[in-house]
Amino acid sequence: MAVRVYLPAQLCRLYQIKPPLELKGARVRDLVDELDRRYPGMKDRLTEGRALRPYILVFVNQEPADLDSLLPSDVEVRFVAAVAGG
Amino acid sequence: MPILLLVGTRNGGFIIRSPDRNSWQITDHFFESWSIQHVTYDRRDGSLYAAVNSHIYGPMVARSIDLGKTWTHSSTGLTYGDGSRARVKQVWQVCPGPPSRPGELWVGVEDAGLFRSRDHGRTWEHVESLRRHPTVSEWEPSGGGLILANVLIDPDDPDRIWVGVGAGGVYRSDDGGQTWKVLNRGIPAPWKPNPMPQAGQCVHKLRLAPKPGRLYHQNHVGMYRSDDYGETWVDIGANGLPSNFGFAAAVHPRDPDTAYFVPHISDDRRYVPDAAMAVWRTRDGGKTWQKLTAGLPQDHAYLTVLRDGLATDTLEPAGVYAGTSTGHIFVSADEGDTWALAVSFLPPINSVEAVVL
Questions:
Q1: Cβ burial B79-112 (10 Å sphere, 16+ → b, else e)
Q2: Of the four, B100, B232, B236, B273, which is 20 to 30 A from B280 by CA?
Q3: Does residue B3 have a pLDDT over 90?
């Protein structure tokens, strides 16, 4: 199913992305894999080991989620950098 | 002859050009909003490499093959693995390999460790032998973290590699990184129960002088010189310098007896003594020192010159460059005798390297 994906501005600049991206995936983790295929290294920017990086949050239709969250149809996923340090 | 200054700052990297070491122009700002610990030039093929970091998005190593106009980046393999308690938090130092091994690169990282690439930084492998050394239990974080911020390769022997860890000490491999020897003889670590431990010393900057076996070393507790590849260290800071604390060191490109340091007041007040900036130069391997201040700020200059903030070029006479925590770069075109402000109001500067094209 199509998912509208938004990424933090710093990563959009790094990869010259204009959000939203239209991706497909059953879980958030699938989106990360697809992002990494399209934008090599993106997985390392968003995750560390098998988890999200400590300052990365993900929201599915504005609800807090994690890498294993299921994606319903007509969904919007936002990866957000936590406000930390000012 | 055109000069390029490669500058790493807390908010991106900069390239600053000069035709003559008198006028300077900022021509490129790359990786805005990322912290760049180090930018270096690879003389083998003209590539630039940058240590690019974010406390949110993690570390990566970037490469430019067009002198900073465009960049690629990777962190593939830059990990200790899921089973390790250690994490690769930042890349601190990028060191191109020897001419005989094109594509080989080394990086030092926080948590302290060494990684090697054989494909121009596209993929990385952990050099596990270093963190398996029996003295690693002596390592502990310095003020900047537990960092490996020094990687040096002997120009006469591509298998001889030195690394410097804060706070862990100096290590040398003579077999391309397979085994390591700990080399801190003569350097104290006074915060330890045993103040002369085998390891755990806090290395700030190591520099190779243009003489086989000679290194200069700015440590947390003093300035040192070795004439035997690091086997023993001579304290060269005790006589004539205003402080034994500092971060940076630089060497003359041709004269192994000439080196530069920037003493700071102390490890709790990390700025230059009397808030008056001075670069100190020795012309005799550290026996005597000259205080160089002409053209440097002498009034209320509460600045720091960090580990990689001091550099020389290869021209005659040699140029010396000092980048500060206040975002200023001071340049001397006469080996340190006189200085001029080249650039001001950059973000806090982590590193400066001068390239003569």
A1: bbeeeeebbbbbbbbbbbbbeeeebbbbbbbbbb
A2: B232
A3: yes
Residue corresponding to tokens 């530069």: B260
- For tokens 């490499």, the residue is B49
Of 3.40.630.30, 3.10.20.30, 3.40.50.300, 3.40.50.720, the CATH number of A2-81 is: 3.10.20.30
CA A2 to chain B, closest CA, distance in angstroms equals: 26
Domain B1-25+204-226+233-357 adopts which CATH fold? Methylamine Dehydrogenase; Chain H (2.130.10)
For residue A41, give the nearest of B32, B60, B87 by CB distance: B60
Q: Are B152 and B206 in contact (CB under 8 A)?
A: yes
Q: Domain ranges in chain B?
A: 1-25+204-226+233-357, 34-137+161-201
- Return the number of other C-beta atoms located less than 10 Å from residue B238's C-beta: 11
Assigned token pair, B15:
């390239």
Q: What is the pTM of this model?
A: 0.96
Is it the case that residue B66 has pLDDT exceeding 90?
yes
Residues in chain A, overall count: 86
Q: Which residues pair with B232 in a beta bridge?
A: none
ipTM value for the complex: 0.95
Q: Is B230 helix (H, G, I), strand (E, B) or coil?
A: coil
pLDDT at B82: 87
- Residue-level pLDDT at B268: 85
CA distance B194 to B309: 32
Each domain of chain A, given as residue ranges in start order, spans 2-81
Residue with tokens 């003489």: B211
In this prediction, residues B124-143 reach a mean pLDDT of 96
Element (H, E) at A34: helix A28-38
pLDDT score at A84: 62
For residue A10, give the nearest of B57, B73, B82 by CB distance.
B57
Q: Which two tokens stand for residue B195?
A: 């103040």
